[in-house]
């Protein structure tokens, strides 16, 4: 859902507009960004003579005797009386935190961004684990394996550098762009006047001396007031921006800082190779029909940047919650970046890597891993703005059943509510909400209902009335009363979720039974999921379609300080309310449009108001991957595009994209034609039906990937550089991805009329087409090279894969075992007792591995060990060295037991509940010759099987590419998914 930018259009909901660049600032229209870029330009012009004015007072250095940290006073040669303090800490996992704040100033700078993002206060290394060396010109710390990591803090000018094996990895203030605009009074900020310096009497000249002009510029550019369009920002605290340059000398690619519609490897924004004229912006904004290639800020902001090169990976997390602009310039072997934020303190976390997996682990220890979602939320979601009545919802459900198409969730947008008063049903169109929800849930499906953050200012509206009486609404710049803006209900106010007094209130609102005098949502159910939209926040009549920056939040902080965090707080408290809605609690499902670092702990996100175009389909793939790098792994783009009417070909392709996105939802604007998949003509309807059923068959793969991500922070969708960090050819590839650790490699088709797709393969491994079983073996190699097939060797190659409209470019990497459930069902809960098929894709050495993770999918029993977590393996062995006879063995083992899951009992209640679930079929790919027989080990039971002749997994590119592989199908071995077993294939 998206608002028109003009208040007048509130009465014209069917009006469609294009992206309006004039609604949003460019850097040149933003005072603090202008100042930051001008500072960078002056430094560049001065070249080698430029030196940062900030330095450390060595006499103030204070090393902690117990933990790996120190503090020191920092002074500026521009303002000697202004005090700053530097705090450097080494965490127990090697992450380095660098903080600098203004001390004893006129006011306190906002320093709480990290407290909202971090899952806990990080543990520091012990002093004995970090070797501190204090020298004349700085202090250094050595730690890690063989002291391979070194952090050097230079005194004058202040500079922080992280080295690995003596090679620079990250440099803070190496270019001298650090600038913390200190608090000052308007009167005291004028240049020093010296009278009588020249001339006599009436001819006396007054000289103005400003020793800071070389650094800050001659003009007080937007220090105390700033106007954009018809809005004026009063800026009562004056200038307070923060500038810092961060350089990655050994890393030519940078990724992350979502959310932007651009390439995964971020293009330059400055310098001779710049792709854009403006920096990347992090400012959560309600952007209408955003451009598919732009550095413009979108709905969420995660100030995390990964830097990668062949020698390794590092990252920085800049914990700031205000409007931030980031310039990127690619250099010879590295990348220079410049971060300029409107307010806040310097609070940078340097993540040392040295590889992508380590970065994900280090970042997730800071901000938390993604929550494990309810299993139904990984299935297909059907939405539009709006299903207009309870009968409409029932009708849509009936049509899905009539067409035998699976769906798990139906959504309601804002029109369900009476006058856009959320929680309050429109009794004319939804006269029986409880019964309607019950009808959906009776088919083992769920509903998701929207709750936006704006409250209609109407005394009869209980949500507004309670919030107003509690005094938990955002205040205007005066700090008194309630801020009034305009959104869907008209005159609106916004809950200030920074105020702790709002939290219990929000929990009570979502209760489905009223236990006291509090208002409760009795016309709901404990299974209803919640959609948090418009939480940037979107304000129709506000600057940049958002809240004025001088509004006041709890604690006296201005909105400018907390803007990018605001949306996360709304989702956080909604998640908390749903958690406390039932006893015992059920896993909440919350979808958010706005997010910040740490939002992965509270649910899913989508890429907002996209357009039904091939370009938006393509960039949506890149955005979902980039969001995953920032921790937001439960992500997707609206299938079909929110705006416009996708033609059947585009819609079919988009369903394929959605089926391989972690969050899979079709959604449409109120203007669009109805486009539920059952409305398509043939052959399009049949193709989409097959795509939906494919997603459902693969739900065990997706759920296992989510489980892994919830433990490790590694994203669900993995680009080439994450999978193969040594392969330079893959570092910029962002139009294909792997699904978790499954071995599935998908190449979305995002161009009209395509009949084939070019897929890049990094490793010396065989790949198989998931559907046709066509083999794509590596180039023929010596046995020595083949022995390294699962490691990274320079064998990158491209293969052409069939991709007609009914074909998906989906490959299986050799060495993978994929668990699927092939029985068509109308919703995923009905699959809980369905049997499994195992696809065993043999690697070039004849081995394979895979796993499946199962739990009840809705509660928290998994935290008590109520799970089934099985590993599957295959290996080929030589039975007789002289005859060369071989045997293939495939077996199952208990991963939960072997990996020591706390409280785990193999006979737990959940495992017993699915004890009857069996493996009904094994499909083995890469079998080069017909077996002699197949048996269940230990039982002497001969199993039924079929063999389809084809090339084996040992074949090279010259004789095997494009040919079908040999396929062995083992039928109903009668083995349980919860038990240990082994099957032996003898040749």
TrEMBL record:
Q: Which Gene3D superfamilies match?
A: Glycosidases, glycosyl hydrolase (family 31), Golgi alpha-mannosidase II
Q: Which GO terms describe its cellular component?
A: glucosidase II complex
Protein's GO biological process? carbohydrate metabolic process; N-glycan processing
Q: What sections of the protein cross the membrane?
A: none
Query: A single GO molecular function, which one?
Result: carbohydrate binding
Q: In which pathway does it act?
A: Glycan metabolism; N-glycan metabolism
CDD domains found in the cross-reference section: GH31_GANC_GANAB_alpha (cd06603), GH31_N (cd14752)
Which segments constitute the Glycoside hydrolase family 31 N-terminal domain? 86-327
Q: Which UniProt keywords apply?
A: Endoplasmic reticulum, Glycoprotein, Glycosidase, Hydrolase, Signal
Q: Which residues form the Glycoside hydrolase family 31 TIM barrel domain?
A: 370-705
PROSITE patterns xref list: GLYCOSYL_HYDROL_F31_1
Query: For the Glycosyl hydrolase family 31 C-terminal domain, which residue ranges apply?
Result: 713-818
* Family the entry assigns: Belongs to the glycosyl hydrolase 31 family.
Q: What is this protein called?
A: Glucosidase II subunit alpha
Instruction: Read off the lineage from the record.
Output: Eukaryota, Fungi, Dikarya, Basidiomycota, Agaricomycotina
């Amino acid at each position: 859902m998206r608002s028109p930018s003009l208040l007048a259009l509130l009465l014209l909901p069917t009006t469609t507009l294009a992206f309006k660049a004039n609604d949003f600032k460019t850097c040149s229209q933003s005072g603090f960004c202008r100042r930051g870029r001008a500072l960078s330009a002056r430094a560049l012009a001065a070249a080698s003579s430029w030196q940062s004015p900030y330095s450390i007072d060595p006499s103030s250095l204070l090393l902690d005797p117990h933990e790996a940290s120190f503090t020191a006073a920092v002074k500026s040669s521009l303002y000697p009386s202004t005090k700053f303090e530097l705090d450097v800490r080494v965490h127990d996992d090697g992450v380095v935190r660098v903080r600098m704040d203004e001390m004893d100033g006129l006011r306190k700078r906002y320093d709480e961004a990290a407290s909202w993002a971090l899952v806990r206060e990080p543990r520091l290394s012990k002093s004995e684990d970090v070797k501190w060396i204090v020298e004349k010109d700085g202090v250094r710390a050595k730690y890690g394996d063989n002291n391979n990591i070194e952090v050097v803090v230079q005194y004058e000018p202040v500079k922080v550098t992280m080295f690995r094996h003596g090679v620079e990895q990250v440099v803070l203030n190496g270019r001298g762009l650090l600038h913390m605009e200190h608090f000052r009074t308007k009167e005291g900020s004028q240049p020093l006047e010296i009278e009588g310096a020249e001339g006599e009497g009436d001819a006396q000249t007054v000289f103005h001396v400003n020793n800071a002009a070389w650094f800050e510029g001659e003009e007080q550019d937007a220090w105390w007031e700033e106007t954009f369009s018809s809005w004026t920002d009063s800026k009562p605290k004056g200038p307070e921006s923060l500038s810092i340059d961060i350089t990655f000398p050994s890393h030519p690619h940078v990724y992350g800082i979502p959310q932007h519609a651009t390439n995964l490897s971020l293009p330059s924004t400055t310098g001779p190779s710049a792709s854009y004229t403006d920096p990347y912006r992090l400012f959560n904004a309600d952007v209408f029909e955003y451009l598919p290639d732009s550095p413009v800020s979108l709905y969420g902001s995660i100030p995390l940047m990964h830097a990668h090169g062949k020698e390794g990976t590092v990252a920085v997390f800049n914990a700031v919650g205000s409007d931030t602009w980031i310039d990127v310039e690619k250099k010879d072997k590295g990348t220079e970046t410049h971060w300029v934020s409107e307010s806040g303190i310097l609070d940078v976390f340097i993540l040392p890597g040295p590889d992508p997996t380590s970065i994900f682990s280090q970042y997730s220890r800071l901000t938390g891993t993604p929550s494990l979602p309810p299993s139904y939320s990984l299935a297909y979601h059907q939405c539009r703005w709006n299903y207009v009545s309870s009968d409409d919802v029932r009708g849509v459900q009936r049509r899905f059943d009539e067409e035998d198409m699976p769906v798990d969730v139906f959504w309601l947008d804002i029109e369900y509510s009476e006058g856009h008063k959320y929680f309050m049903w429109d009794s004319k169109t939804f006269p029986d909400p409880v019964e309607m929800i019950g009808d959906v849930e009776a088919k083992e499906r769920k509903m998701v209902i929207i709750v936006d953050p704006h409250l209609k200012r109407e005394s009869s509206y209980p949500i507004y009335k309670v919030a107003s009486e509690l005094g938990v609404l955002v205040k205007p710049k005066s700090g008194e009363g309630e801020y009034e803006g305009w959104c869907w209900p008209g005159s609106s106010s916004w809950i200030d979720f920074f105020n702790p007094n709002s939290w219990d209130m929000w929990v009570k609102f979502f209760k489905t039974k009223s236990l006291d005098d509090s208002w409760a949502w009795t016309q709901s159910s404990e299974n209803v999921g919640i959609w948090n939209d418009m939480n940037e926040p979107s304000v129709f009549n506000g600057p940049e379609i958002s809240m004025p920056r001088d509004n006041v939040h709890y604690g006296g902080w201005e909105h400018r300080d907390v803007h990018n965090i605001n949306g996360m707080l709304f989702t956080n408290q909604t998640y908390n309310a749903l958690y406390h809605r039932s006893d015992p609690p059920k896993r909440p499902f919350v979808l958010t449009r706005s997010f910040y670092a740490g939002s992965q702990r509270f649910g899913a996100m989508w890429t907002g108001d996209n357009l039904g175009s091939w370009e938006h389909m393509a960039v949506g793939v890149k955005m979902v991957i980039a969001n995953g790098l920032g921790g937001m792994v439960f992500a997707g783009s609206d299938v079909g595009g929110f705006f416009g009417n996708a033609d059947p070909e585009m819609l079919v392709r988009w369903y394929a994209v959605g089926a391989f996105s972690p969050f899979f939802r079709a959604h449409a604007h109120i203007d669009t034609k109805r486009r539920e998949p059952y409305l398509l003509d043939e052959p399009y309807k049949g193709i989409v039906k097959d795509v939906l059923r494919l997603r459902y068959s693969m739900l065990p793969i997706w759920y296992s990937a989510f489980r892994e991500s919830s433990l490790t922070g590694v994203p669900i969708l993995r680009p080439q550089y994450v999978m193969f960090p040594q392969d330079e050819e893959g570092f910029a590839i962002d139009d294909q991805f792997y699904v978790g650790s499954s071995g599935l490699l998908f190449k979305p088709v995002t161009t009209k009329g395509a009949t084939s797709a070019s897929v890049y393969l990094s490793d010396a491994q065989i790949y198989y087409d998931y559907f046709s079983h066509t083999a794509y073996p590596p180039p023929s190699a010596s046995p020595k090279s083949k022995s390294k097939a699962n490691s990274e060797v320079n064998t990158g190659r491209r293969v052409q894969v069939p991709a007609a409209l009914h074909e998906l470019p989906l490959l299986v990497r050799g060495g993978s075992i994929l668990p699927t459930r092939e029985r068509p069902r109308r919703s995923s809960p009905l699959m809980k007792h369905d049997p499994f098929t195992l696809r065993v894709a043999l690697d070039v050495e004849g081995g394979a591995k895979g796993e499946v993770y199962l739990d009840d999918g809705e509660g928290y029993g998994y935290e008590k060990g109520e799970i089934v977590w099985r590993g599957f393996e295959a290996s080929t062995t030589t039975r007789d060295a002289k005859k060369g006879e071989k045997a293939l063995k495939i077996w199952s083992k208990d991963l939960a037991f072997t990996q020591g899951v706390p409280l785990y009992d193999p006979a737990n209640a959940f495992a017993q509940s699915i004890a009857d679930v069996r493996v009904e079929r094994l499909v083995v790919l890469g079998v080069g010759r017909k077996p002699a027989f197949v048996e269940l080990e230990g039982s002497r039971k001969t199993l039924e099987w079929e063999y389809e002749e084809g090339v084996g997994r040992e074949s090279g590119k010259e004789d095997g590419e494009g040919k079908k592989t040999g396929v062995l199908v083992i039928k109903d071995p009668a083995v349980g998914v919860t038990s240990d077993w082994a099957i032996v294939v003898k040749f």
